């Protein structure tokens, strides 16, 4: 079931903004310190233009893709979000249900509710479990065994969170999100190292994803250790300030990995054309985080289903207008660096967000 009230993505964002209080809205749109990395994520996408081909038969367009051998209607992964239950009572289970309904993949966060077994049982969608390491090797091993037993198709370590970042929007309100509170006096993940990655690969058969890779040498080291999925991400601009936009880094990481692992990218991806750009530059899939949370805040699983439907439509139309019939036909020749047409920020992909429109009515517009 999807919420057909929404005819455009910006309407979903607007509804989320109206439903959320200032604290939770700021949690979604904010980044660390000066929020420069946050803005650069969007800028890295905006600075790329698409060059179409014409006079090809595009009467049938296929938006599907695969991640870890799982066929998806759209190669999108619902990114792991801490405290997702703040935006919808079902939390990670609501996201997993939408992934099932819409034919995408879901990454369940270890710092959202409900627990990993409950999220696993909530839908038949392919799911990956993401972990922040807050214990010793035995603690990690116990969780991976539970993840495997629950039927997850992969295990993810988030590796760009050695320490808790400074998110000044939260600090100014004197709030500390649950997902950023260290447990048991530990300094978050300061002790996490490549030795943990190597040990997990040697001990367990479950596919391993590393989320938070930005440097090409780290990508090379990961594939040398047998990591299955390189997730290019700077945590949505919420960890290291003054970082480089994820899309800017994608081509060099694709070249370095050279097909030895699959590659997922996130950071400011909100439109179908964004997904097309990433796939043309060599990504196997695109993660969406804020867009996922905005949709859940706008109307739970039905709104997230609608969001994914609209994204799929945008991808399909973009492919047809590019003169190709599938994502696999794209390549870097379709992409060119060009002038940026707007000031890039966390909501700049929705230029109509601040326009004055009448209340949403189901009969306003078909489709």
Alpha-beta content class? alpha/beta
Number of strands: 12
User: Which bin fits the share of residues in helices?
Assistant: 25-40%
The end-to-end span amounts to 15 Å
Order of strands, main sheet, comes to 4-5-6-7-8-9-10-11
Strand content: 5-15%
Largest sheet: 8 strands, parallel, barrel
String of helices and strands = HHHEEEEHEHEHEHHEHEHEHEHE
List segments where confidence is low: pLDDT < 50 over at least 5 consecutive residues: 178-186
Describe the 3D structure.
- This protein has 367 residues and is an alpha/beta fold.
- 38% of the residues lie in helices and 13% in strands.
- The chain has 12 helices and 12 strands.
- The strands form 3 sheets. It has an 8-stranded parallel β-barrel with strand order 4-5-6-7-8-9-10-11, surrounded by 7 helices.
- Helix 5 links the parallel strand 5 (105-108) and strand 6.
- Helix 1 runs antiparallel to helix 12 (290-322), helix 4 runs parallel beside helix 12 and helix 11 (272-280) crosses helix 12.
- The protein is globular, with a radius of gyration of 19 Å.
- Mean pLDDT is 92; it is low at 178-186.
Question: What are the salient characteristics of this protein?
Answer:
single chain; 367 residues; 8-stranded parallel β-barrel; two-stranded antiparallel ribbon; 12 strands
Summarize the structure.
The protein has 367 residues and is of the alpha/beta class.
